[in-house]
Amino acid sequence: MTEIKAILFIYLAVVTGIGVYSFFKVHTASDYYISGKRGSWWQVSGSLFATIMGGSAILGTIELSQTAGWAAIWFLLSAAAGLFVLSLISRKISILGHYTLPELLRKFYGVPAEKAASMLIPVAWTGIVAAQIIAGARIISSLGLTGYPEGAIICGLIFIFYTIAGGQLSILKTDFAQALIIIAGIGIMVILRLIHAGDSDLTPAMQGIPGNGMFFNERFTPADLLFLLLTYSVTFVVGPDIYSRIFCAKNEKVARNSVLLVAFLVVPAAFALTWLGVMAAADPQSGGSFVLPGTSFLPDWALGLLAAALLSAVMSSADTTLLTSSMILSELFTGNLDKPGALKLTRLLVILMGGISLLIALKVSSILNALLISLTFFSGAFIVPVIAGLAGWKVSRKYAIPAILTGGFLALTGKIINETTGGNYGYWLILAGFMANFLILRLPSTGRNPHVPAG
Questions:
Q1: CATH number for 161
Q2: Number of domains in the chain
Q3: DSSP states of 60-74 as a string?
Q4: Which pLDDT value is given to residue 154?
Q5: Whole domain around residue 197: which residue ranges?
C-alpha cells in the first residue's frame, strides 16, 4: 500500500506543478480560454478523447456493465454516434464559434437567449463536474487509501486549483499525454485480465458477448437506449465542453479530423471497458463496490499506476468542464470575455462552481445519476435550438427562451419520474420536451437565420 500512496503522491504533485507552471504562461484571455486558437490535430484529438473518456465515462460504463451486462456497451457507443454526427457540422461550429456555446445562441436568437443559456448551462454542468469528483473519490476509496468523503474533497480541491491556474493553454498539452495513459491503461488491463483469467472465469463474460442476443436485456431495454441517444449521445453533437475543443483548433480541417478520429477511438474503448466490467461482476473477490477491474491480482505498484491513469482521465474531464461552465457564467456578468477583469472573475467562479460540485459529490455517490440528470435537462433545453441555428432552419427568435425552458424542464421532469417510479413513463415526457422545443421554435417564422451560411 506504501507503493500506491507514493505513486499517487508523485502523480498529484506533478499535476499541481503543471498548474503552477501554466499559470505563468497565460498572458492573454485567448491563451486561457482557447489556448490562443493554435491547437493542432494531435492536441485537439488528445484533449477531446481524454475529456470524453473521463472518469465518469470509464467508471460509469463499468458501473452499468456490472448490472446490465454487455448491454452497457451502448453507453459509449452512443457517445461515438454523437461524435460521428458532430464531424459533419464541426466546420460551421469552428467558423461561427469564439469562446462559448451561448455566443452561438446569441448569433442565432439574440442576446436574451444567450443570457438564458449562460444562466442554465452552468447550473446543469455542475452535475457533470460532480460526476468527475465522484469518479475520483471512488478510485481512491476503492484502494482503501481514504473514505469516500475524504477522497471527494482531495479530488475536488485538486480540480479547482488546476483549473484556476492553467486554463486551456495547459489543458491541451497535458490532455494528449493523459489520452495516451488512458489508452495504455485500458489495453494493459484487458491483457492482464486475459492472462490471469481461466476458462471458467471467462465463461460468464463470453456468454454475454454482443451477437449472442445480449445487446438488450431486462436491465437495459430499447427504451433505455432511446433515452441515452436523446440525453447523452446528443450532448456530443451539442455540448459546451466538446465545442470548447473545436474552438481551440487552429482551423476547420483540424476540428473535423480530430472529431472523426476520436469517434473511431471510442468504439474499441467501449468494447474493452464493458468487457472489464462484466468480468468484474463475475469476480467473487470484487464485491458490490468494485470499480477497478483486476485489482484482485495486481501488485501494489500496478494498482498505483492504474489509479494514476484513471485519475488522469478524471482530471482531463473535470478541468475542461469546470472551466467551460465558469467561462459561460463569467460572460453572463461581463458581457464579453475579452473585457478587462473577465479573466479574474472566471477564476473566482471556478472556485464557486467547483465548490458547489464538490457538495453535490458528497451527497450523490452514483456516477450515472449525477451525469444523466444534468445531461437530461441540458439536452431537452439546448439540442434543438443549436441544431436549428446551425442548419439555418426557419425559427422564431422571440420564442427561443420559452422553447429552451419548456424543453429542458419537461425532459428533467421525465427523468425524475423514471428515477422515482422505477418505470419508463418518463420517457414519453422527455420526448415531449424535444417536440415542444421544436414546435415552439417553429411558431411565427422569421425566415432563415442571416448569421448562418447556407450549405
A1: 1.20.1730.10
A2: 1
A3: HHHHHHHHHGGGGGH
A4: 86
A5: 2-375
Q: What is the pLDDT of residue 455?
A: 39
Spatial neighbors of 445 by CB under 8 A, at least 6 apart, are 394, 395, 396
Q: DSSP assignment of 326-363, as one string? A: HHHHHHHHHS-TTSTTHHHHHHHHHHHHHHHHHHHHHH
Percent of the chain with pLDDT over 90: 15
Q: Which three cell numbers stand for residue 220?
A: 437495459
Query: Which grid coordinates are listed for 88?
Result: 459533419
Residues 83-88: contacts with CB under 8 Å, at least 24 apart: 83/52, 83/236, 83/259, 83/260, 83/262, 83/263, 83/266, 84/260, 84/263, 85/236, 85/237, 86/236, 86/237, 86/242, 86/259, 86/263, 87/256, 87/259, 87/260, 87/263
Residue 453 lies in a domain: no
Mean pLDDT of 189-214: 60
Cβ neighbours of residue 377 closer than 8 Å, sequence gap 6 or more = 120, 124, 408, 409, 411, 412, 415
Query: Quick check: 255 pLDDT over 80?
Result: yes
In a domain, 448, yes or no: no
Is 411 contained in some domain?
A: no
Q: Is residue 285 part of a domain?
A: yes
Over residues 12-35, mean pLDDT: 77
Is the C-alpha dihedral spanning 38, 40, 46, 48 positive or negative? positive
In Å, what is the CA distance from 340 to each residue of 29, 187, 191, 404?
Answer: 9, 46, 52, 31
Q: 29 vs 347, which has greater pLDDT?
A: 347
Residue predicted with more confidence, 207 or 8: 8
Torsion angle (degrees, nearest 10) of CA 332, 334, 338, 342: -100
pLDDT of residue 163: 79
**Beta-carbon neighbour count of residue 331 at 10 Å?**
26
Is the pTM of the predicted complex or chain greater than 0.85? Answer: no
Whole-number average pLDDT of the chain: 80
Q: Does residue 211 contact residue 57 with C-beta atoms inside 8 Å?
A: no
